[in-house]
Amino acid sequence: MTKQNIFDTKLNNSGERVHCAYMIKKAVYPGSLDPITNGHVDIIRRGLEIFDQILVAVLENPKKKSLFSTKERVAMIQEIFAENENVEVKSFHGLLVDFAKTNESKMIIRGLRAISDFEYEFQMALMNRKLDPEIETLFMMPSLNYSFLSSRLVKEVSMLGGCLEGLVPGEVEDKLRDTYKTTPKTNSI
Ligand code: PNS
Q1: Dihedrals φ, ψ of 22, to 5°?
Q2: What is the mean pLDDT of residues 15-39?
């Protein structure tokens, strides 16, 4: 059975072949994603090895100043995963647990890069559990190559005209260059 099939047949206790439905395992991967980096992409790809579907949830927060609008952030991620029908992208506001429940998921994926991420993530995971004990948080580590990477640093490097090679997908690099009006540089090492 492929991961996408939700119906199959199996033998029941009397030896009769019956139809049965399998639950599609969907995980929500939330974040500001302003913009998505190769570290986020790496976590989504790893998530797809475990779950049938990943729903990327882009935080819409009018109080938090973002470089890219919610619409732009969603569009960039959709473009990156255009070939992958198991990745869906939506924006959300309000409580993450409510969004997960509305979208029939009981799993939240968060990436952990270093110990420094842990305290914030731990608090968030336990708060989410308090709000909805049925929803679990799964922490995943990105490839070591991306353990230093953050959207904030990517924006800073881009603003100052630094090399973005290997840090963000091409679609994001183009958008950043456009926004900061910088020309691509190559690595000096
Ligand atoms: O990429 P980020 O900015 O670290 O993502 C943070 C995010 C979006 C996961 C977090 O801010 C969030 O879940 N916001 C929704 C509001 C919410 O549910 N708050 C209560 C739980 S801590």
Answers
A1: -105, 140
A2: 88
Pocket test for ligand 1, best of 96, 118, 126, 154 (most atoms within 8 A of CB): 96
Q: Among all residues, which ones are annotated catalytic?
A: 40, 64, 113, 151
**Parallel, antiparallel, or unpaired: how do β-strands 53-59 and 26-31 relate?**
parallel
The one-letter amino acid at 130: K
Query: What is the 70 CA–ligand 1 centroid distance (Å)?
Result: 15
Do residues 175 and 72 lie in contact, with contact meaning Cβ atoms separated by under 8 Å?
yes
111 lines ligand 1 (CB under 6 A): no
- The encoded tokens of residue 131 equal 């709000």
Q: Helices 170-180 and 151-159, interaxial angle, to 10°? A: 50
What's the confidence (pLDDT) of residue 3?
47
Chain segment 108-145, per-residue pLDDT in tens? 999 999 888 999 999 999 999 999 999 999 999 999 99
